Amino acid sequence: MSGPRIAEGVKLVTHDEMKTQAEERTREPAKINEELQREIEDRKRAEKALREETIRNEAILQTAMDGFCVIDIRGEILKANYAASEILGYSIENLVGTNIRDFETTEAPEEIAKHIDKVLNTGSDRFEIKHCRKDGEMVDLEASVNFLIGKDDGFFSCFFHDITARKQAEKALRERETALEARTNELKEVNSALRVLLRQRDEDRRELEGNVVLNVKQLVEPYVDKLKRSPLNAKQRAYLSELESSLNDIVSPFVHELTSKYLALTPREIEISHLVREGKTTKEVAELLNLSARTIEFHRRNIRTKIGIKSGKASLRSHLLSVEDH
User: Fold this and answer.
1) 65-162 maps to which CATH number?
2) How far apart are CA 293 and CA 316, in angstroms?
3) Going by fewer Cβ within 10 Å, which terminus of the chain is more open, N or C?
4) CATH architecture of 177-325
5) Which tens digit of pLDDT belongs to each residue from 91-129?
6) What's residue 252's pLDDT?
7) Which of 113, 101, 55, 107 is CA-nearest to residue 76?
8) Cα–Cα distance for residue pair 197/21, rounded to 1 Å
9) What is the pLDDT of residue 51?
10) pTM for this entry
11) Residue 250 class from Cβ within 10 Å (0-12 exposed, 13-18 middle, 19+ buried)?
12) What whole-number percentage of the chain has pLDDT above 70?
């Protein structure tokens, strides 16, 4: 008897093939389970790394020298570090939940509004501001504020540090500079006054020396010359010689400064020169010396020639003044 007929197109599966198929179907759940276990391990490692990074960042923020706050768009402090607590004088618990508008500051409201607008428009701002600590002391702060977009809403991150000591040092420096500037101006005024006094002293000295020389030439030398021409005995001539020598010794300390400039001038020309140097006109000199204006003009021409003024337009008085100053 023949066996059962197999329908055409139906493939017979051997025992080994059925075993292989069963093993593959068994292996698929195991593979899926292995992949799930790997994903779980990866997620655990990522979560651990995130926790470690969060702890590290928290430690950095809490030990930072600068104060740090996270502030929501309504102005409420969501987070603060230890430095912020120290700078502002509040505990971290008191800072968190407080609105920054509750802090006293000397900054005008419109100025604060400008800073907020700048942060919102540009994403950041850096500025100085005065804040009142819990104990009432005002401190100068330098703040750096950034606006960030979170998952649910925007918020501000704010770093700040106390610059009170620096501001006080700057103020003291400005006051010192102001005091030094005032002192410098005082010294300049004193120096100017001293220069005026020294110039006046030199003018007085030159005037005294000039008067001595003129007096000797006008009041003494004419009589000495007359005595020389008089009949004198030997003893009288010795006295006269000693007198002339003494007169020369008297004027010798300053004769090189004054008389040498007018070495070629006569006593009358020296006298006129001094009056011209003082600003006297020809008419005034003539009246003072009881001479005619023509005589004074004659002497002026001689003086110009002897002291080397060649240009007819050059001022005799200016030249005499320049000679005296040197």
Assistant:
1) 3.30.450.20
2) 16
3) N
4) Orthogonal Bundle (1.10)
5) 989 989 988 888 878 778 888 888 888 988 898 999 998
6) 65
7) 101
8) 124
9) 65
10) 0.45
11) middle
12) 79
Tell me, rounded to whole angstroms, the distance of Cα 97 from its chain centroid.
Answer: 44
Spatial distance between the Cα atoms of 37 and 26, rounded to a whole number of angstroms: 17
Q: What are phi and psi for residue 135, nearest 5 degrees?
A: -80, 5
Q: Distance between CA atoms of 254 and 259, rounded to whole angstroms?
A: 8
Which residues contact residue 65 at a Cβ distance below 8 angstroms, ignoring those fewer than 6 apart?
Answer: 83, 161
Measured distance CA(183)–CA(43) in Å, rounded:
74
CB atoms within 10 A of CB 247: 15
More confident residue, 222 or 142: 142
Q: Which amino acid is at 165?
A: A
Alpha helices, DSSP H, located in 216-315:
221-229, 234-255, 267-277, 282-289, 293-306
Q: Which of 134-148, 196-210, 286-300 has the lowest mean pLDDT?
A: 196-210
Q: What is the CA radius of gyration of the chain?
A: 55
